[in-house]
Amino acid sequence: GDSVTQMEGPVTLSEEAFLTINCTYTATGYPSLFWYVQYPGEGLQLLLKATKADDKGSNKGFEATYRKETTSFHLEKGSVQVSDSAVYFCALSENNQGGKLIFGQGTELSVKP
Amino acid sequence: EAGVTQFPSHSVIEKGQTVTLRCDPISGHDNLYWYRRVMGKEIKFLLHFVKESKQDESGMPNNRFLAERTGGTYSTLKVQPAELEDSGVYFCASSQPPEGGPLGQPQHFGDGTRLSIL
What we know:
heterodimer; A: mainly beta; 6-stranded mixed beta sheet; 4-stranded antiparallel beta sheet; 0% helix; B: mainly beta; 7-stranded mixed beta sheet; 48% strand; globular
């Protein structure tokens, strides 16, 4: 079945460091890909998405590119801030499965001043 | 616009008791999803409603879990009787139609209900 694999956390960075969180997926079809973020004490929020190969999703300085050839959707940010500390979830949704999301295990990011 | 709201935010019960979680989706959202995250693992799909109908309940772990969506509005998820392995955070999400769809209609999540079984 479909699955999503993320790099294990926690990831600890200093402010203004470069961030990469790896995400790879397996899917039978042609899924849409998402990154969700959960800030402390809050629910999941959609961070960005991409719906076809080579699409780049971006939001709040974060970017991820849908790479069909490597089945990847790595999340990057050039300069992280303390306020980016959160848990990040990579997810996919197959177009013929009612929109249900399949998530990775989440990667906790801690940014120190 | 009000977001997805879940009640309660935290529930602590003893093994063998019954607990009911509630989710109020965003008004006008036909699609309603339940998910669960157990002990820092991945978030897993439980089931999907379209209006009042169960579209997909393939993720429901067993018959101790019962989900309903009265009149296609709010939804409840009842666990009876609760077992230790049911502990986790239960998330509800809603989205506009078409469900998922080729454009990947984003889902809006509630803050979750943290369920602790003692």
